């Protein structure tokens, strides 16, 4: 997997596509900001990708809260959820960023986790999400 250049910072879907090619049991993946905004996706239609981003953000937030309460740290390495016919992996991917991967039930968690970590390590600076400005937040709240 090649390292991203600064010119490719916004189009990150190709990275997720590469992850799916490396690990064929991956059904799809979403890169999201820690507050649930989808940044890039592969393997899902837009509505499903946004839904997964919201779910992943919530699960990641719950894990951080558990860490704060029971582990004296809000650092979360990975959240793994086993569903009936799928496995959901959620990992920290850089400043304010999270990577969610949905794999088939027969996926080897060690392989999926390793490839996710390898991707994140290779391109971490390009996965960071800038903090939202106060002005942008207040403008958004006025729209509702």
From TrEMBL:
Report the SMART domains cross-referenced here. Robl_LC7 (SM00960)
Q: Which InterPro entries match?
A: Mycobact_SerProt_Inhib_Rv3364c, Roadblock/LAMTOR2_dom
Q: What range(s) does the Roadblock/LAMTOR2 domain occupy?
A: 13-103
What Gene3D superfamilies does the record tag this protein with?
A: Dynein light chain 2a, cytoplasmic
Protein name in UniProt: Putative regulator of Ras-like GTPase activity (Roadblock/LC7/MglB family)
